[in-house]
Specification:
This protein is an alpha/beta fold and 259 residues long. It has 8 helices and 10 strands. It has one domain (32-246): Decaprenyl diphosphate synthase-like (Undecaprenyl pyrophosphate synthetase), CATH 3.40.1180.10. A 6-stranded parallel β-sheet has the order 5-6-4-3-7-8, with helices on both faces. The longest helix has 24 residues, at 94-117.
């Protein structure tokens, strides 16, 4: 990326847009996605390739998490959502699941003050009740600490599933007593876990898998997708910027309208 830009805006280099038009040249633009979401895949395979225990891959993946946060914040991205634990991940061995929850708790506690110091606001999406009490407390504590921050909004999807989210929204709408004629897209969106968060402009998946795996199914209707064979622990700031560069070269069409 050659220019840092505020999200959702276009910056033209070498003079104003009108000056470019007078010169008969196409203006060069640099567009930063407002919301980037990442499916962080490949921790286990990273460890297995090195003949290490799978948990070592999860530990190493934390470095990539920190780099992703730093790169997103420094590039002008306003929302970063990280798929941290899916509703399907419960199928993994109990020892691995328990280790993941412990790792999340410890690092949320460790990173709370540094993130707060960087004006980052932290949020969580997914079903919380099945999670260990100690993890839920760490989640609530960092949310409360950073709730008034105005910089990057960092969203962790923990015990999250896209179909589950839609089902929960429909259930709540029913419980509230809405009539069929009152239900539209806007109402459904207001009951999603992501209420108040814009849909992702760009979804990145690491490790070479080319699917969404039940991630942000409603919200990804018009998202740009970027798949890379790089395993998550190797996803550096440089790799993140490659994804942003790819996004900037695309023409987005919403029902036939190019943006």
């Amino acid at each position: 990326m050659k220019i840092k830009e505020k999200p959702g805006r276009e910056k033209v280099r070498g003079g104003s847009r009108s000056e470019k038009a007078k010169a008969g040249k196409e203006p060069e633009v640099d567009i930063i996605p407002v919301h980037v979401a990442i499916i962080m895949d490949g921790n286990g395979r990273w460890a297995e390739k090195r003949r290490l225990a799978r948990i070592m891959g999860h530990q190493e993946g934390l470095k990539a998490v920190r780099q992703a946060i730093t790169t997103a914040d420094g590039s002008g991205v306003k929302y970063l959502t990280l798929y941290s634990f899916s509703s399907e991940n419960w199928k993994r061995p109990d020892s691995e699941v328990n280790f993941l929850f412990h790792l999340m708790k410890v690092n949320l506690e460790k990173e709370s003050l540094p993130l707060h110091g960087k004006n980052v606001r932290v949020r969580f999406i997914g079903r919380r009740q099945p999670l260990p009490e100690s993890l839920r407390k760490a989640m609530s504590d960092i949310e409360s600490l950073t709730s008034a921050n105005t910089g990057l909004t960092l969203v962790f999807a923990i015990n999250y599933g896209g179909r589950q989210e839609i089902a929960d929204a429909v259930r709540m709408i029913s419980e509230k007593g809405y009539q069929c004629r009152e239900i539209d897209e806007k109402l459904i969106e207001s009951f999603l876990y992501t209420s108040g968060i814009p849909d992702p402009d760009l979804i990145i998946r690491t490790s070479g898998e080319n699917r969404l795996s039940n991630f942000l199914l409603w919200q990804s209707a018009y998202s740009e997708l970027y798949f890379t064979p790089v395993l998550w622990p190797d996803f550096t700031g440089k790799e993140f910027r490659k994804a942003l560069d790819s996004y900037q070269k695309r023409k987005r069409r919403f029902g036939g309208i190019t943006r």
